[in-house]
Amino acid sequence: MTVHRTRHARRTTVSVLAALALPVSLGLLAPAAHADSMSGPFGPACSAVPEDGAGSFDGMADDPVATAASNNPELSTLVTAVKKAGLVDTLNNAKDITVFAPTNAAFAKIPKADLDKVLANKDQLTKILTYHVVAEKIAPDKLADGTFRTMEGGNLTTSGSGESYKVNDSAKVVCGNVKTSNATVYLIDSVLMPKM
Fold first, then answer.
1. Coil, strand, or helix at residue 156?
2. Of 9, 14, 102, 196, which sits 20 to 30 A from 67 (CA to CA)?
3. What is the spatial distance between Cα 182 and Cα 92, in angstroms, rounded to a whole number?
4. Does the residue 20 lie in any domain?
5. Is there a single domain that holds both residue 25 and residue 49?
6. Angle at 173 (CA atoms; ends 73, 185), nearest 5 degrees
7. pLDDT exceeding 70 applies to what percent of the chain?
8. Residue 152: which domain range?
9. If you ran DSSP here, which 8-state letter would residue 163 be given?
10. pTM for the full model?
């Protein structure tokens, strides 16, 4: 009877260990699966991007960043600002950059009179726009706790996890990890302001 109980106890212990090992082994696989899911665009505003054509994710991947942005209906105000600042060629010819791109809704948060004033001041506009550009491609996992030097010369910070990230503790990434031929783009819901 004692032998039978011991064998039964061993079998129970092995079963319990096996049951515990399965979630652990699945947990070890989870980061790889998560990394795969982050290889594409993520975020709530990604659903507004057209499914096909030049403004789709596939279409944007074929073009340099300023051209790609001009085909995305969510970025028409940004494109107007980039043209006014004379930055189209600068952005299109840059290599391996990251652009934190304010959406039309981000620009709409700025009172119209203030926005018009900035759009009319090329130096100030250039300073603001180049503050949104980093001279390296930033992968989503680098956003968790990052500090990056911008083309404007100042620093911006990023924080967050999963699919929820903020820039300078204020602007939310609403559609991230969008690829163009020369840039990684993160659409954000507020315009970033450098120190003037």
1. strand
2. 196
3. 7
4. yes
5. no
6. 60
7. 81
8. 44-188
9. T
10. 0.80
- Express each pLDDT in 7-20 by its tens digit: 554 554 444 333 43
Q: What is the pLDDT of residues 136-151, one digit of tens each?
A: 999 999 999 999 999 9
Q: How far from each other are the two terminal CA atoms of the chain, in whole angstroms?
A: 84
Name every residue whose Cβ is closer than 8 Å to that of residue 164 and which is 6 or more positions away in sequence. Answer: 172, 173
In the predicted structure, residue 101 carries a pLDDT above the cut 60: yes
Q: Which of 162, 183, 186 is nearest to 173 (CA)?
A: 186
Q: Are residues 24 and 49 in the same domain?
A: no
> Which whole number is the average pLDDT over 35-56?
81
What tokens does 10 get?
């061993």
**Judgement on whether residues 12 and 75 belong to the same structural domain of the protein:** no
Residue 193 belongs to some domain of the structure = no
- Residues contacting 102, CB < 8 A, separation 6+: 77, 78, 132, 171, 187, 188, 189, 190, 191, 192
Amino acid at 95: K
State residue 39's pLDDT score: 76
Per the structure, how many domains does the chain have? 2
Give the number of residues written for the chain: 196
49 domain-assigned: yes
On whether residue 93 sits in a domain, the answer given is yes
Tokens 């106890």 label which residue?
A: 9
Return the pLDDT at 52.
Answer: 87
Spatial neighbors of 47 by CB under 8 A, at least 6 apart, are none
> Does residue 121 share a domain with residue 30?
no
